[in-house]
Amino acid sequence: MDPIKKDFIESTLKEIYRTIGIDQPINHDSILEFIIEDVESAADEDFHDGDIAIAFRRYLEKDAES
Q1: What is d(CA 59, CA 54) in angstroms, rounded to the nearest whole number?
Q2: Are 39 and 3 a contacting pair, CB within 8 Å?
Q3: What pLDDT sits at residue 66?
Q4: How crowded is residue 9: how many other Cβ atoms within 10 Å of its Cβ?
Q5: 4-59: pLDDT as tens digits
C-alpha cells in the first residue's frame, strides 16, 4: 500500500481511539494490519475515514465472535 494512504489509515485509527476514549492498544500494529487489508479488499481506491471506521468495527466483531 502507498505509504501516504497507510499513514492516513493509521492517523484515522488513532483518532478513533481518541474519540472512543481509549489509549493506543498494545496490539495496535495487528489492528492496523487488519484494517489495511480490509480497506484494500472492500473499499474503493478513493477510500475515506468512514471505510476505516467500518474496518475497525469488523475487527471488533471478529474478536467478539471468537
Answers
A1: 9
A2: no
A3: 61
A4: 22
A5: 999 999 999 999 999 999 999 999 999 999 999 999 998 778 899 999 999 999 99
User: Domain of 15?
Assistant: 3-65
The three-state DSSP-derived secondary structure of 2-44 is CHHHHHHHHHHHHHHHHHHCCCCCCCHHHHHHHHHHHHHHHCC
As a whole number of angstroms, the distance between CA 19 and CA 33 comes to: 20
Instruction: Supply the pTM of this predicted model.
Output: 0.90
The grid coordinates listed for 57 are 468495527
Cβ-proximal residues to 15 (8 Å cutoff; 6+ apart), any chain? 49
Q: How many domains does the chain have?
A: 1
**C-alpha–C-alpha distance, residues 32 and 10, integer Å:** 7
